[in-house]
Amino acid sequence: MIALLNRILGSEKSRRRFNLLSPWLIIGLAAFLRLWNLGYPKKLVFDETYYVKDAWTLWNTGAEKAWPQNANGAFEAGQVNTYLSDPSFVVHPPLGKWIMGLGMWAFGPTNSFSWRISVALLSIAAVGLIMMVAKILFQTQVWALASGFLFAIDGHAIVLGRTGLLDSMLMFFALLAFYFLLRHLQTRKLGEPTWRQPRLIAVGVTLGAATAVKWSGLYFLAAFGLYVVVSDAIERRRLALASVDSSEPISVGSWLAPSFIQAIISFLLMVPVAVLTYVASWTGWLISDGGYDRDSDPNPFVALWKYHQDAYNFHVNLHTPHSYASNPLTWLFDIRPTSFFYESLSAGQNGCTSSSGCSSAITALGNPFIWFPAAAAVFLLTYLFITRKSKVGGLILLGIAGGYLPWLAFLNRTVFQFYAIAFLPWMILALVYVIRMYLHTRKVDELPRAVKIVGGYFGLAFAVSLFFLPIWIGTWTPYWYWHLHMWLPSWI
Length: 492
What we know:
mainly alpha; 19 helices
C-alpha cells in the first residue's frame, strides 16, 4: 500500500489531483454508508417516534401537535395527517425538527427515507467539515484525510447519521462553530479592540443554531466564548511582554484594559447573535396560535419564557428508568450503546434459514478500534496539554469540554450513550493528534516501520467497520452472527 501511494504521488500533477479528489472520496464513502438503504426499517425507531411526527406537524402548522393513541402504526402505513388540533408539550427547541420536516416535505412524509435524509446529509457534511477543521489544526492534508476517514467509518456516527434524531444536527452546528472559531483565531488582530470580527458573528449564529436544536448547544457557547476571551488576553499579555526590555516591568494596563474591552466586544458579537438565532427558530410557534403554552400570556415572549420554564423543569427532573440509560462517566468507553431497533425471526420464518434464528439490529455502537484508542487519546492529550501547553491539544480538548464535561453534573439523570455524537469529532481529532505525534517522534530509521504500523491500524479499523456494519444498518443476519458482535455483556 505504501509503495502504491508513493507511485500515485510520484509527480506534482498526481499530487495535485490526489489533494483535489481524496476528500471527495472520503465524503463519498461517508455518503454510501449513511444513504445505503436509508429507508430501512419503515418503522419509527427509538425516539423517531417523537421527532419525526413532531417535525411533520411543525412543518404543517408552525407548532408541534398531539397525536392519537398508538399513532405509530398508522403513520408508518402512510396515514401521516391524523394529528390532532391539540398542542403537544415538547422539550427540545424546533430547529432540528424544521430541518427534518424539510426533508419530509421534499421526499414525501410517507417515505421513511424522508424521515432521515436531512440528518444523513448533515452527517455527511460533518465528515467534510472535520477534514477542514483538521487541515487547520494539523496543517497537512494527510491528517485531514485521516480524521475524515475515521469519522466516516465509525459506527456511532453512521447510526446517528441514519436515524431521525436531533443529536447529529447538534454535532454538525457545534463543529461548524468550531471551524469558524479556528478561522477567527487565524485572522484576529491583537492591536486596538475592534468590532470587525465577522467570524465571531458566525460562531454566534452557528452556536445559536446548535442551541436551537438541543439546549446542550449552550455548553459549546460557554466553552468557545470563554476560550475567545481568555486566549485573547493571554496573547495580548505575551505580545506586551515581548515588546518591552526584559529589565523593565510590564505595565498591566498595556494589555489588561484592551483585553477587557475586547472581551466585552466579543461577548456582544457572539451571545446576543446566538440568542437572536435561537429565538428566530421559534418563529412558527410565535406567529401561530396553537402551540403549547402559546396562550399563557398576551405577550408571546412572556409565554415563550413560561414554556422554557416548563421544559427546564422536565429536563432537570427526568429520572425515569430506561433499560438503555447510560451514566455519562462511561460514555468515552462506549460501555452501554443504545439499541435503536431489533427484530428477530425464528428458523423457517419468512425465509430465515439459520437454526439459531435471524436478527435485524441497529445499535449505536462505535467501532471499538476507534473508540477505545480515542478515549485513551483524550486522557493522553489532557496530560500533554497540562505538561506541555500544546495549543492544538487545548483546542481539541475545548470540544470535549463543551460537549462532554457538563454532562458529568447530571449523573443521576436519564441520559444515553448516543449523546456522545456531539463530541465524537473531537475524540477522533484527539486520536489523530496522538497518531501524528507517534510518527513525528520516531527516529529516521524507525519511521518506515512506524508508517506501516499506522497504515495497518487504519486498515484494521476499516476491516472492523465492515464486520460491524450489519448491526449498524439493520441487515438481517443469523442470530449467532449478531451475538458474535456483542463483545461486552453491556452491549446487549
